[in-house]
Amino acid sequence: MRLFHHAFIATTPSLAKDEVDMDFWQTGLPQIATNHDFVMSGLLAVGALHVASLEVEKSSSWLEIALTYQNQAIGGLGHNLSCNPQNLEATFACSILVLIFVTGYPCVCKDGHSDDPLHEILMIRSFLGGCSILIDKLKEYHPGEKASMHQWIHRSSESEEYLSTNSADPKSIEFHRSAKIKVQDFQAVIDQSHPPQREIYQKTYELLVEVFDRWPAGNGNLGWPLEVSDAFIEMVRQGDWLARILLMFHGLAMHLSSRKWFAHGSGRRLILGTLRHVEDIPPEWVDLVQWIRQAVES
User: Fold this and answer.
1) Residue 134 in 3-state DSSP?
2) Domain locations in the chain?
3) Within the chain, where are the H helices?
4) Reported pTM
5) Cα separation of 206 and 190, whole Å?
6) Mind telling me which InterPro entries this protein's record contains (predicted)?
7) Is residue 141 a contact partner of residue 149, using CB atoms and an 8 Å limit?
């Protein structure tokens, strides 16, 4: 219980941006965790990881604790998916916690993580592959309780009211506007591509547009690695430049979330990791790639 209290008190303020978040993290999620051990393990894993990010001198001990609970959460999640696949609340809650952990671990544990830009995305997909089949159901999930998942899943899109009452600084707002224009302009490129690749690009692009449209309120960039197709991942592996640009756009979305402790550095790491494996940039992409690189390095 001491660890739960320590982790919960430390973690909630770092994840909550407004009343909807506070309702989710202080009421809805703890209620689910008290009824499902694997969700409690996920909550403790994220809490211990956050404490590790704060107590640098003791980080190795907290990381060990975090990994222990994370393994328990993943094991319990897998068992829940196989035995009780309709338990959407617990599945969603634990999935979010695992997503946060997998995103945040390389940010906290500086040593030993791969510089492969697809490594973290593939790790997320391997840990939560069974959950991807529930994405559509989760999007349609409408329970009635105020403290339930519904309000947190269906975050409102960007609004002046949200921006005025939350800590999105002017520099981030301007960066978001510029990046969103770059993403919107990419539609014309997709329209000129050839089938069947065009369909893959378009579906991936639409997921990105939704993420940028919902910033800063939305949480969609966390789930993006689950929703992109295996075909898209393979195109990135094969060095397809349109796929690489879409992947780096995802990096920009993660960079916009870098104020969150678990996302700090993740967008920069993905973008610079992608470019580290590139020898020659096609002339038509030089200016855009240079802009993307400068955006995460500034």
Assistant:
1) helix
2) 2-153, 163-297
3) 2-15, 19-23, 29-35, 37-54, 59-83, 88-108, 119-127, 135-139, 150-153, 160-165, 170-191, 197-214, 220-227, 230-237, 241-256, 266-276, 286-297
4) 0.81
5) 11
6) Fun_TF, Sterol_Uptake_Regulator
7) yes
Residue 184, pLDDT > 90, answer yes
CA angle 123, 255, 231 (to 5 degrees): 40
Tokens of 125: 């997909």
Helix (H, G, I), strand (E, B) or coil at 78: helix
Task: Give 50's pLDDT tier (boundaries 50, 70, 90).
Answer: confident
Distance, in Å, from the CA atom of 255 to the CA atom of 260, rounded to the nearest integer, reads 10
Rounded Cα gap, residues 140 and 88, in angstroms: 11
Tokens 């993740």, residue?
266
- φ and ψ at residue 120, rounded to 5 degrees: -65, -40
Query: In one letter, which amino acid is 241?
Result: W
Helix 241-256 to helix 230-237 angle (10° resolution) is: 110
